[in-house]
Amino acid sequence: MRQTARIISTYTADVSGVNSALFELGGMTVMHDASGCNSTYNTHDEPRWYDFDSMVFLSGISEMEAIMGDDDKLIDDIVSAAEQLHPKFIAIAGTPIPMMIGTDFKAIASVVERRTGIPAFGFHTNGMHTYVQGASVALEAIADRFVTEQRPKTEQLSVNLLGVTPLDFSVNGSAEHLKTALESRGISVVSNWAMGDTLETLQNAASAHVNLVVSRAGIGAAKVLQKRFGIPYVIGRPYGKFTDVLVQSIRIAADSRENACPQIERENADILVIGEGVSAMSLANAISLEPGIRRHARCIAATEFAECCLGSEDRIARDEDDIIPLLEGAKVIIADPLYQPICPKTARFIGLGHEGFSGRIYRSEIPDMTESLDWLTAKI
């Protein structure tokens, strides 16, 4: 049976991806779900919840409302809260129950916007996709609605970082390190989508020369910004020596105006990386460049990803039964510790915690490998 995990965990759902992407931007996010589920979206999936003020709410849909439908109550509650809190925008996201009763979130958002005068978005998330899908549509909506004016390009070569959420970058400093790593190589960062920057900062995105898509969550915004302002994008997450490869690709993209997803030749790979597509692919490239390892790596993208962005040895496999056969022959497997039970005993397993898969369980053990793979080299 597809989309059924007997042994391993599952990735954070798309509705949490919406919340994570918008968390710091000053908007009001409403998850249309049963009472009590807010603890999942926030205290479990959102590490910033305890230290950062954000307007995140749950509709508290009842059994009778699920059976009979009552969009007027949802709309009235949202309008009432917005009139008191004055958010910069309103996002309404769906869950499995609204999906089953056919809730029209775009129509609800239209009514809410008309009554409040505040920009509103309706997202047809349903819990059947991973967080990268939800975060992608959320950031795409922000780009489409709020980045509307052409701005003069910065004098120094610059980028927007697209797809930065703690579900992939945790709260170990790696999100901030992305900026310093690029700046030390002569590339300034206009905006970070979306950790550490405000909505107003994101509105300056058109002044960047290139977009760096550091996770699949950033691809929707990248396409909007390219279509509207002609900004090319480079796909890849800075890891070790692969950071320099990405920097070179950014420089080329700024001149050629063409998109890029740089790859390193990785034939006969015996190291396997499992995880979010951009991160896993980038780490596999970085491992193959590391002089202290001297071996090649391939990856399995276990979340939504585009086949064209992968190397010849890489694969997309989102279901447990599809992943298991791909593990055969690997001598080293690098993945979240919750993958270990399905890995062959003959392979050395290196646990690399992923907040979007195992939540906060291994948060304190997640390393920052933006510029150095020393942590990994010592284990391989």
Task: Please specify the SSE layout and strand pairing.
Elements: H1 14-22, E1 28-31, H2 38-44, E2 55-58, H3 63-68, H4 71-85, E3 90-93, H5 96-101, H6 105-116, E4 120-123, H7 131-146, E5 158-162, H8 166-169, H9 174-183, E6 188-193, H10 199-202, E7 210-213, H11 219-229, E8 233-235, H12 242-256, E9 271-275, H13 277-289, E10 297-301, E11 315-316, H14 320-326, E12 332-335, E13 348-351, H15 355-358, H16 374-379
Helix pairs in contact: 1-7, 4-6, 7-11
CATH topology of the largest domain: Rossmann fold
- Low-confidence parts: none
List the total number of helices.
16
Largest sheet: 5 strands, parallel
Distance between the termini: 35 Å
- Give the assembly state of these chains: single chain
What is the beta-strand fraction?
Answer: 5-15%
The helicity comes to 25-40%
CATH homologous superfamily identity of the largest domain: Nitrogenase molybdenum iron protein domain
| Gyration radius, in Å | 21 Å
Write down the overall geometry: globular
CATH architecture annotation name of the largest domain: 3-Layer(aba) Sandwich
Number of domains: 3
- Strand and helix order: HEHEHHEHHEHEHHEHEHEHEHEEHEEHH
Number-wise, the strands total 13
Q: What average pLDDT do the residues reach?
A: 92
Main-sheet strand order equals 11-10-9-12-13
Task: Give a structural overview.
38% of the residues lie in helices and 14% in strands. It has helices at 14-22, 38-44, 63-68, 71-85, 96-101, 105-116, 131-146, 166-169, 174-183, 199-202, 219-229, 242-256, 277-289, 320-326, 355-358, 374-379, and strands at residues 28-31, 55-58, 90-93, 120-123, 158-162, 188-193, 210-213, 233-235, 271-275, 297-301, 315-316, 332-335, 348-351. 50% of the residues are buried. The protein folds into 3 domains: 14-129, Nitrogenase molybdenum iron protein domain (Rossmann fold); 158-256, Nitrogenase molybdenum iron protein domain (Rossmann fold), CATH 3.40.50; 271-379, 3-Layer(aba) Sandwich (Rossmann fold). The model has no long low-confidence stretch (mean pLDDT 92). The strands form 3 sheets. A 5-stranded parallel beta sheet has the order 11-10-9-12-13, covered by helices on one side. Strands 2-1-3-4 form a 4-stranded parallel beta sheet, sandwiched between helices. A 4-stranded parallel beta sheet has the order 6-5-7-8, with helices on both faces. The protein has 16 helices and 13 strands. The protein is an alpha/beta fold and 380 residues long. The radius of gyration is 21 Å and the shape is globular.
